[in-house]
Model the fold of this input.
Amino acid sequence: MDNWLSYGPCLAFVITTLINLKVFVRAEELSKLKAELMAYASEHFVNRETYSDNHKALQDQMLQIHQDISDVKNILIGIVNRNSRRN
Done:
């Protein structure tokens, strides 16, 4: 019994400090935080399927651009070669 009386004020201080620092969380606060995190994630991030689809589409577009540039390069080389033969 003497131990409780001597350590009581320290124990009360520690518990009060933990409560003031909000170390312990209520279920309502957790569900509110979860809802906020889900809303933030849905606004700022995309899911893996959307990313994969868009990445594939971007790769296809880049490949098409590369092909178009190669075609233009070949046409220009043909024009230069034709003009150099004339001279």
User: Anything to note?
Assistant: DSSP finds three helices and no strands in the chain.
